[in-house]
Amino acid sequence: MTAQLPEPPEGHCFHCLQPLPDDGALKVKIAEQEFPVCCYGCQAVAHTIAEHNLLHFYQYRDTSNPLQIPLLPEELTELEAYDDPDLQDEMSYQVEPNSSNTARETTLSVEGITCSACAWLIERELARLNGIVKATVNASTQRLTVRWQPDQVKLSQILQTVAGLGYRALPFQAAQQELDFKQKRRYFTKRIGVAGLATMQVMMLAFGLYFGVYNDIDPEIRGFFWWVSLIFATPVLLYSAQPFYLSALRSIQAQRPNMDVPVSIALLGAYGASAYATIIQQGEVYFESVSMFTFFLLLGRYLELLAKQRAVAAAANLIKLLPALAERELPNGELESVAAHKLQVGDIIQVKAGAKVPADGELLSQVATLDEHILTGESKPLRKTSGQPVYAGSINQHKSLRARVTASSQHTVLASIIRLQDSALASKPKLAQTAENLANKFVSRLLILATLTFIGWSFYDPEQAFWITLSVLVATCPCALALAAPTAVTGAIHKLNKHGILLRNADTLNRIQSIKTVVFDKTGTLTNGTFSLQQTWVDPNAPFAAESLLQLVGKMELTATHPLAQALAPYAKSSASPIPVRNVEEHIGSGMTAEIEVDGTWQAIRLGSLSYICEWHPNFVPASNEFQVFLASQQEVYLALALGDSVRAEMATTVQALKQQNIKLVMLTGDQWAPAQQLADQLQLDQVVAQCSPADKLNYVTKLQQQGAVLMIGDGVNDGPVLAQADIAVTFSEAADLARTAADVVLLQGKGSSLLQFWQIAARARTIMRQNIIWALVYNIIIIPVAVAGFITPYWAALGMSASSLLVLLNSLRLYR
């Protein structure tokens, strides 16, 4: 029921309290009351305040001095500050910065989330706003990831909508998150302390009564002990159990009752009945059950909070690794200290020895040694030379370095890693969704079961009906089922991050056990993708020298995306006589085309694979099967090149470990048959398919999926479609953007063993998740008939339910070891 709002002084505006105009007042209807306002502005503001559930602004303001009353509640004025473009650049990022799509995305910390019902309510209400592209709430980390169109909805409106539901959402900050966790720990510690002290006192009296120590005492003395128990149990009910009531009310508001609904009913019912028995001095009291139940449940929530904190600490630590200040060079060569988030693309920065790099950039110094373990999990420092990328968060190991900023703030690699981790935490595996749905449905059915139990026992033994019903509500509360999946998922993500593995889609934890085939790309996946020229063949009748042809190839490969281009592009700087070239174009999966000037005329040429060249020269046979790259005109083949590559570190041992699990191993590559078969024999793969176009790869994987789930690992632009098709897509951090976008898993270390680590951790996480769900279901299936039959008292019901939840939590914590 809405509280009655105070009337304004007669003849004054309800909102601003200024005199009403002589020609009459407008009306505003709020909380089923009608008030006069002086203008359309006050009318609109009053409606806005009501829409955001901020009526306390009117209820508690002091109207004695209208000039000192603010015209807007603090909640509205504070949130509007987040619409400032500069502030949004610091805490959000444009999803597609180089396109017309203006959608932005940010991560918000939300206070007050207790369960999946809270998450569902926030997601549902935000989805109703025009301009919201996506809103995903992770109840475990209490974070909201929201993507919106700034031209349709303001960020302040999003924050106000969340505030209107009874939650407080603000941009995520690592330091603020740590402060919030400390406050929550104190919040629970105080309530646990009160419940623990009261439980000891009440149990001391209750055990005496249970075992008949006071059986021969006067009823008045027994009544005195009841009153003492009531006094100790009251602060437990009103103070310690408060989190359960708030959570229950929110879930009812969301029309999705959670497990705190039966908990609250049981606590209030047991306390109310015991208090009534104490007052009339007849019946039974269960103050010890109220106190003990609250204590155990709070203890479980506290341990759950610690587990969540441990799971998200890694992401928070990543953010804190970015330095607050950066040293930026001025045009005159002097240095100035600026906030790291204010660095712009193109700025020149200096990083002292031992300091952290504040933004992504291009190394300008001749050489530098950097520790990138926070990005890759690899502790060995990397030596980099001029022109190579340096990443925000990495540590400069030796002398001072200079770099040109290429990305800062929300656009750095480190920021993208954090976003990937948040995305994984927000997503839910199907197994987790199933458990969550079971828990939500279980609560409503539990309330029905408790009602039927009370009705049945009312006919059989009316004196026991109430207490047996309480035992059913407490013992069968599905807390363990609700914790089963989220705790395992957060544990798995934390473990994977420690090994330099980013999970973009948490459902891969559920799909890993169904994988029957692992498909590898060759170049850049099984091999390092760092080629060098091994052998050259030139047609004796070619109109140009070998050096000039190599220079031409280098020029054409400057803009190419294939891994071979990195080995050939440097030849563009050759001092050989240049060949005029124009209209260079890349054809993904085939090669490149261009036009060159030969004896005063322009001729079309092709650069690419053998199959691509044979479209012009079907009878051409290379001098050796080692050649992979060919240059030809429509009249003749000018050049053939053989480039060598090395097997990626630890890939051989990974392949052997997968073979031992009876996994079929297949290589799909666009390279020639001879080098592909040679590598397949070296690694002992089961099957190799060479000279594949992107369409061929896609069709082949689709056929393999008819025999079972497929995991695909690739890194090239042409691997994007097939990665999207695979059941689980894996790529490396240095992969092309299209491959990373399609991947479910990103391996940061660049080692073959990372794939095996992912496989093992994911399989273990799924096992623990299934164990948790099975245990929770088995416990509830066994305890339901026992509780309905009246064999469990509320005290033992509370102990059993709490023990079940703690067992699930402890089982999930094994993933952290």
From TrEMBL:
Keywords: ATP-binding, Cell membrane, Ion transport, Magnesium, Membrane, Metal-binding, Nucleotide-binding, Phosphoprotein, Translocase, Transmembrane, Transmembrane helix, Transport
Location in or out of the cell: Cell membrane
Residues in HMA domain copies: 104-170
GO cellular component: plasma membrane
Chief location: membrane
Endpoints of the signal sequence: none
Nucleus is among the record's keywords: no
Similarity remark: Belongs to the cation transport ATPase (P-type) (TC 3.A.3) family. Type IB subfamily.
Identification of the protein by name: Copper-translocating P-type ATPase
Organism expressing this protein natively: Pseudidiomarina taiwanensis
